[in-house]
Fold:
Amino acid sequence: MKTKLWVFLLAVILVESCVSTRKFNEQVSQVAAEKSAHDATKQDLSSCANTVKNDEKKIASLQAALDAASDQINFLKQNNNQALKQLENLSVISNSQAESIKKSMENMGAKDNMIFSLQSSLAQRDSLNMALVMNLKGAIGNLDDKDINIKVDKGVVYVDISDKMLFKSGSYNITDRASEVLGKVAKVLKNQKDIEFMVEGHTDNVPFKKGDLLDNWDLSVKRATAVIRVLQDKYDLNPAKMTAAGRSEYQPINNNETDEDKAANRRTRIVILPQLDQFFKLLERPKR
Structure:
C-alpha cells in the first residue's frame, strides 16, 4: 500500500514538473516573439523617421519652387502693366505721325522695287555683254590671242588689238589687214544701234618723237583717231556713238621690262561703254 502511495506521489511530482517546464518554454518563446516584434517595430519607426526627413526636404524644395514661381508671376505682371502703358501711349499717336509712318512704309516698298529693277537690269546687261562677246569672237574668227583679245570685266566689254596688227612701227596709218579686222568689229557694233564705245590708244614707255608727233601722247591719240575715222568713213558707224582717247604709256598691262611686255602694252583698245541712262532713270526720285 505504501509502495503505491509513493508511486502516486512520484507521478504527481513528475506531472507538475513537466507542466512547469512547458510553461517556461512557452514563456521563453513568447518573450522571444515579443522581442522580435519590438525590433521590427523599432526598425519601422527608424524607416518612418527617414521618410519624414525626406518628405521635409521635398516640401522645402517645393516651397522654394513655389516662391520662385510666385516671383516670376509678379515680374510678368509688372512687365505686362508696362506693356499695357506703352500700348496706351502708342494708341494715341497723332494723325501726322501715322501719315509719316505710312509714307516710310511706302518708301521702303519703293526702294525694294528699285533694288529689284536694278538687279534685273544688271542681269540683263550681263547677258547682253556675253552675247556681244560671242558675236565679236564669231565675227573675228580664229586670230592669235596675242594680236586680239576680247573680254568682259566688271560689266564692260574690251577689245584689245595689238599695234603690229593695226599700224607700222612709229606710224598711225592703218594697215590693210587692220582695216579688214576693224570691218568685222564694225559689223557687230553696227547691229547694236544703242551701243556707245571709246577707242583708246596705248603705248609702251619708250620715249618717242617723229615728225609732227611730239611724244607718246601724240602717238596714242593719233592712233585712236585713225581707228575712229576708219569706222566712221569706211564702215559708216555713227560718230555720235564714238569717242577717241589717248592713254600714252600710263595704263600698261605689263611692266615694260621685256620686249614682250612692251609689245603687249602697245595696243588699241575698243571699250564698249555701259548704258547708264537706264540706271540713272531708276535712281531718279518719282515726281509727286
Remarks:
- The mean pLDDT is 75.
- Helices lie at 2-90, 95-140, 163-166, 176-190, 216-234, 259-265, 277-283.
- The chain is about 65% helix and 10% strand.
